[in-house]
Each structure stands twice: as structure tokens, then as C-alpha cells.
Amino acid sequence: MGRVIFNRIAGAVPVILLVTLITFGLMRLIPGDVSAALGGISSTPAEREAIRKNLGLDEPAHVQLFKWYGGLVRGDLGRSHFLGKDVTQATFERLPVTVSLSAYSLVLTLLFGLLSGIVAALRQNTWVDQAAMMFAMIGVSMPNFWLGLMMIVLFSVHLGWLPTGGYVPFTQDPVGWLRSCTMPAISLAMLQIGLLARITRSTMLEVLRQDYVRTARAKGLPNYLVVGKHALANALIPIVTVIGIVVSLLISGAVVTETVFSIPGVGQLLTSAILNRDYPMIQGGLLYITLLLVGINILVDVAYAWLDPRVRYDGG
Fold this sequence. Notes:
The protein is mostly helical and 316 residues long. The chain has helices at residues 2-29, 34-39, 45-55, 61-73, 87-122, 127-141, 144-158, 174-208, 211-218, 223-260, 266-275, 279-307.
């Protein structure tokens, strides 16, 4: 297993380098740079050129890229042009916010997604099945930013139950954290709930038709043992892969959700960096997100092997 993990990490290195290269190229294709934001509206072309020279933005693109990779080898991702602080420091200051929001959304996704899929499979072709799948279809169809805006209008503006935005750290006020994260977590989780519910239903239906499940029922085992010990345990094997995809989607979806609800996480940090053409911050922030997603994929591989001892990795 250790060799497999090492091979997965080694195989992820080209992917990470490719992501940074694509990010670097795309950002240079967008007109403008950070000198306009730093210099202000009243700055002259000469002042903006001086800012660009001071930041090294007047150098050829390939020189800037090699310098950035050189810093990456040394563990130095540079300083944010707009924030004036180290990229790593700025990212890790915001990372707990994004992780807590994504974790809350993941709990909602697993709770309602798995429950809806299992109930729908056990009550196939009944009104319960139809209602659960309709709920899943609605979740898949609604963009999270639109759902977030509608929730703000209803629960914040009209009813006044929850704040319109902002973030309260859990360590400071658990109730305040729950109030500030509930609407963002729901809007972020709805799409994933629908996806997980549909996959869980189809997987459970396939497992429930297997001979060993019919044999367990024939032996007179209670239904909860048949479903929990035999059916669900085997259905979880392909579902784990989907959960890995869900976690990745939650982290990437946080960029939009944090912007809608003004949550000071990594997503909002990257959005501001893109608007201000803060190249080091964009490249460093995306690098950390890529590393996080790679780690999630490795955990999924390990969990898959743990759930199914029959799996034999070839080390590739």
C-alpha cells in the first residue's frame, strides 16, 4: 500500500505542474495587470510601468515562469502583489474557513444523499422513491449561486432568521458559526446531494438483486441486518469513489459560494486575486487547492482497498 501511495503522489506531480502552467498562461492572456489596481485610477502610465518593473512584470513571460518554478522548488511561492504578504501565509489564513464550510456541506451531503438513495431503493417504484428522486433532480438542476441568492432573499431579507453573509469562527462562537454557514453549506451541498442520492439508489438496487442478499433474506435475517450488513456494506464500494468526486466538487464550488455569501475563505481570496490580476496569489492558491484534491484522491484509493480486500493494485 505504501508503494501505491508513493506512485499516486509521483503520478500527481506532472498534473500539478500542468495546472500551474495552464493557470500561468491563461492569466497572461487576460488584458491588464495588478499595476492598475495598485496605482489607482489617477495613476499615470509612467507610474504603472514603474510598478510593473518593480514587481518584475515587465520581464518576458517565460522568465517569470522559470522564476516562479525556481521559487516553488525552494518552497517559496512569492508574495501577493495586492495583499503585500506571503502567498502561503495568506492561503493558510483563509484555508480553515473553506475547510469548515466544505466539511459542513459534506456532512449534509452524506446524510441526505445516502439516506435518500437508500430509502428510494428500498421503496422502489413507490411515491417515496419518486419523491426522493424528484428532490435529487431538483438539487442537480439548481445552480448553487442562484440557490444561495434565493435563500438570502427568503431567510435573511424577508424572514430575518439568518445573516446575509459573513463568517463567525467555530472556536469563537459555535452557534454563530452554525448560523453563518448554514445557508452557504446548503446551497453548496444541494447539487452533491442529488448526485449522491441517484448513484446510491442505482447501486443499492443492483446489490439488492444479488443472490447473497436473497439468501440472507431466506435465512430469516432481520431486514435491518440484510440491508446494513450485506447490501449497504457492498454498495459502499463504488459509492466511495463518488464521495471522492463530491468532496472535490464541494471544494471547487466554494469559490462561487464564498463570493455570494461574502465568506472570507480561499474561494473569495482567489476571486479577488483574479479580479486584481494578482498572479502569485492565483498560482499559489490554485496550487494548494490542487494538492488538497490530490490528497483526497489518494484517500479514496486507500478507502476503496480497505472496503474491498479483493482489490489488488498493480502499483501503477
